[in-house]
Amino acid sequence: LINLFADDTTIYLGQEDRYNDLQDILSQWCTISGAKFNSTKMEIIPTGPTDHRARVLMTCQLHPDDEPLHTSIQIAPDGQAVHSLRAWIGNKIDNMMPWEPILDKINTHLNWWSLGHPTLDGKQLIVQMVVGASTQYLRKVHGMPTRIEEALVKTIRNFVWNENIPQIGLQYLY
To answer: 9-39 in b/e burial notation, b at 16+ Cβ within 10 A?
Structure first.
């Protein structure tokens, strides 16, 4: 299975697949299409059982019969995320990690917008524009951890009500 997107290529290889076969296919594809594939910028996330992932990391071979991978090719160990098409993928990664910069960006933008003292209607539009636009894609590809959702609700409430208690009960606002 191969997924090509502009200059990003995502390839999924099983435990029995061979890297050398992939290299042959990519070489033929590049020759026919006139494209260039920069395999030295490749990042590999081993998939499969834990012992297989550990072996790939130790030997730098996807399959025992393969030659060791070029030293410029990064192999992501468990717990290290790889950025691909604005998503963070990997084995045993922290789901909170991609959200922290998003929360910082949202707080920065909302603080900037609050300097203009927008009306309540204006704040509604700003929240949709800033919070909605900043979280929509990542929420779709990663899901949103409960802690992040709670932090966003608190951030939105503080922005909309200028860190005061709302004049209307929250159950009536939603």
So the answer is: beeebeeeeebeebeeebeeeeeeeeeeeeb
